[in-house]
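In keeping with the milestone schedule agreed at the kick-off meeting, the structural modelling team has produced records for the first pair of proteins. Each record is given below as a sequence line and a structure-token line. The laboratory manager (R.T.) confirmed that both were archived under the project's standard naming scheme.
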Amino acid sequence: MTVSPRADDAWLVIPLFNEATVIREVLAGALPHFPHIVCVDDASTDGSAEAAEEAGAVVVRHPFNLGQGAALQTGVRYVLEATDATYLVTFDADGQHRVEDALAMVERARQDDLAVVFGSRFLDERTRPGLLKKVVLKTAVWITNQQTGMRLSDAHNGLRVVRRDAAEGLDLSQNRMAHATEIVLQLGRTRLPWAEHPVHVLYTDYSRAKGQSLINSVNILIDSILK
């Protein structure tokens, strides 16, 4: 598969909350390949929004912290209502996602006429999340598959490519981590063609130092059970 160096028909949608120390670097790596990026600042208190604007992204601000699901929904609505993009790509702000994976997923959506491409860290052995996190994520994936009828290997990976017609079916109401199950459910209901694509999630020193990854994974599990 030939990967296009630029994706002019796609917008990156990046939920943003207190990532001022890394967002410039993330955007510097992404903008040469994804010239259209919207960051949804979820009431950051560390200057994340200003840093993203200075780096060249469009920034939409929430006046209050509403959660990642709400930030994603705001980004989706922005792309659908303010642009003519064919694809939107959900992408994390903390440096864990690779631009080359996002490009390859957009290219696969084009070549295979797919409406949704889900990134999966479990289709190969490159990603090493650690045993406990892997157990929690795998359990959450099993719950998601039971709830949605989908058969995904990594339902809670934040790297996804969504074509415009599929994105129009999204109306996320789960503002905490349960949105990861909700987005799979709503995309599945469109009955549009989808596939998974192997990606390498980078567990950086920064993301590990924040100490939030495992907590968020447990939240995924709890929210999914209580949903």
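The second protein of the pair:
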Amino acid sequence: MNEELEKLILKLYTEKHSGKKFVPGKDMVRYAGRVFDQEELLKLVDASLDFWLTEGRFAEEFTEKIADYLDVSNVILTNSGSSSNLIAFSSLTSKKLGSRRLMPGDEVISVAAGFPATVTPIIQNGMVPVFVDVDLKTYNINIDMMKKAISSKTRAVFIAHTLGNPFAIDAVLDICREHDLWLIEDNCDAFGSTYRGKYTGTFGHVASFSFYPAHHITTGEGGAVVTDDEELARIIRSFRDWGRDCYCAGGENNTCGKRFSQQFGTLPYGYDHKYVYSEIGYNLKMTDMQAAIGSAQMDKIDQFCARRRENFAKYQTIFSRYGDYFILPEATPGSNPAWFSYIITVKENQRFNRDDIVKHLNEHLIETRYLFAGNIIRQPLFEGVTYRVAESLENTDYIMNNTFFLGTYPGITCEMMEYMEKVITDFMHRQGC
């Protein structure tokens, strides 16, 4: 890219995207959003000028940065975090896994208090989700209930690190090892979180990531699947790339050296390997323009995560004054969450409920969200779906009725935080608290 074009892009960024001041009571305080500077624009324009469009040099660069950051051997980029969940789970149904493959009717441990995309791949593959309740404060799977939920049909565990707070990984891994279960980590809300000094998304057999604008870094739409298992990595790429058996990168041919000299199924001997399909797959690839943005975002991930932790700590200070009325969130022991948001639950009391404070916040232009689906089995999508509940979902139902969250993303400024503190304090004073 020439120097003149770079100057024009910097000018555009300065005029259109930088220097905006927050006006309390007039500007919305978003719970999430994209945070970027001229570097993302420069890379995006550079990629567009290549006009390669599908995966290319920027996808390779982005992949390498993620792999280096997490210290993993395989990163497969996708077009969304939901697609990452789909192929991460679907890869475990491959015939290439032999007796280890997941089959229709198998049971998979999950939680009902979360995002649908963690659960829907289980159903889409004809398996039975088994729902375990969560602990209040951490909002992650209850380990004692999880142990009791295991049956002779249980084959896998598919759970998320809720809103960036790692689940009790040591305990979950122990259960998986004891019962020979696959572990799929939904790390979409937890990029940059650590457990005992190691990044989440690197503990399970496979993990998913999301780069939607609400997440820790963004490519707009986009995601990734991560694994250190070379066999799984090849299967995952196949599911992502139409189900094809060939693993050549885009624009490459005959990487294996046997393109026209192999036998597959009942196809003619030597059938072109680029058109041999071994899985029932999809096309879920990322474009190079998205990857260019992601590459620039990766250079900022540590500072983004630091800001999320700082904003979480500020909320904790504000709400800790009202501990009689709220259940405050707690990090899982041994973890350092890169908090996706600040999640809080209203205790049962006679002064106000969740809807009262959420209404007050939104009336003052402060965005809130509930914990995604609440209790997913109460959602319309679960009508007619086969599932099993382990014991009860008492806490999940309580969360559905009493929990909400506020943003921690790096775009929340000190001025915004001061405004939110004032709005929250005013509400609590009006309640006589």
